[in-house]
Every structure is written in structure tokens, then in C-alpha cells.
Design brief:
The protein has about 200 residues and is an all-beta fold. The chain is built from no helices and 16 strands.
Length: about 200
């Protein structure tokens, strides 16, 4: 069996015979120059315009060397697999922070977050998150009133809901308004309204 000794990297191989220790050999294993890596790389946040996404990761080094630094990158593509280009900041430089503000230009596109960790002497390799898709906001079209528009009658809202990502509608706010002298007056809310 292999047994780690002190933090310095001393290991001992013990030879056992019938469960009793028969002999052992010790050796030094220097893992300080092993490449560090980022693990569990992922993107947190709501993938909608106006939201901020946060890149997360954990640091791992097999020789327990501390992390000196981490560098970040964000990538965007029209499709889920392939075609990713690094996202630039407002000055045209590569975006190198761990947060991304979701602007209108990313709607319907795929985003990845990349991390490269480094010890004091050894850089790691970039590790990428799985892609996430930035949702396109749903729209409502063909808005109308269903029913007999007369005093005392109950009418209901008529509309078509469309979501390019095929997400079901979670909720809808319907407001009933009337215009008087170029001023909109709210009469009520809800899917239906009794005309007064």
C-alpha cells in the first residue's frame, strides 16, 4: 500500500505479508511543479437581458501549492457547439473579469466562461464551463378584446404568446385601460373585465 508521509512529499510503500508489515521503501515525490487546474467551472445567474452572470470555479493542485492568480474569459457563439469568439469590453479589449452583463446583443446566443489558474511558477490550462443560452424575451402579439363590448358585459383579453425558446408562460399581467382626453386611465387588471 502507498502511504503519504509529511507535507514535504515523502511517501512510503509498505510490503505486507499475511497482514503483517514485512518491509518498506520511502521516496520523495515533488508535485510542486504539477499544473494547477480549475474545477467545477460554471455560470450562475439568470440568462436574460439586463441580468449579470457570474463565473464560478474551484482551485485544485495535486501538490497543494497555493493559487497565485486566475485569469478569466467569456465567449459567445451563434450555436451551442463551435464558433465561439472571445467577448470584448467597451474598449475592444478581451473581457477578463468574472462577471458578464447580459446586453441585448447576446439574446439567442450561447455563452461560455473560461478560467486559467496559476501557481507562483506554473500556469494551468484554460477550463471552460458548459455553454448556456441567453433567452430571447417572450412577446405578445395580436392583442384584442374577446366578447361583446357593452356596458355590464364581461370581456376577456385575447392575445398570442410567442417564445422563441419554447418556454411556457409563467405569468401574464393584463391591464384594462381607457383613453380620455389623451390620458390613459387604468380600469382594472386581470384576464377579464366587466364593462362599467
Amino acid at each position: 500500500r502507498l502511504k503519504k508521509g509529511s507535507f514535504s512529499g515523502t511517501y512510503t510503500i509498505e510490503y505486507l505479508v499475511a497482514g503483517l508489515e514485512a518491509d518498506s521503501i520511502s521516496f520523495e515525490l515533488d508535485l510542486s511543479n504539477a499544473k494547477p487546474t480549475a474545477t467545477g467551472v460554471n455560470i450562475a445567474g439568470i440568462p436574460f437581458e439586463g441580468q449579470t452572470l457570474k463565473g464560478n470555479y474551484n482551485y485544485f493542485h495535486i501538490g497543494d501549492m497555493p493559487m497565485e492568480s486566475a485569469s478569466f474569459a467569456w465567449y459567445v457563439s451563434e450555436r451551442e457547439i463551435g464558433g465561439y469568439a472571445q467577448i470584448k469590453d467597451e474598449n475592444g479589449e478581451n473581457l477578463v473579469v468574472d462577471e458578464l452583463y447580459v446586453s441585448n446583443e447576446y439574446q439567442g446566443k450561447y455563452i461560455k466562461f473560461g478560467v486559467t489558474v496559476t501557481t507562483a511558477t506554473v500556469p494551468g490550462s484554460e477550463v471552460l464551463s458548459d455553454p448556456i443560452k441567453i433567452s430571447v424575451p417572450p412577446t405578445v402579439t395580436d392583442v384584442g378584446i374577446d366578447g361583446d363590448v357593452k356596458r355590464g358585459e364581461i370581456v376577456s383579453a385575447d392575445y398570442n404568446y410567442d417564445n422563441p425558446d419554447n418556454l411556457p408562460m409563467d405569468k401574464m399581467e393584463v391591464r384594462w385601460l381607457k383613453r380620455h382626453n389623451d390620458t390613459e386611465i387604468e380600469l382594472g387588471t386581470g384576464e377579464s373585465y366587466r364593462i362599467r
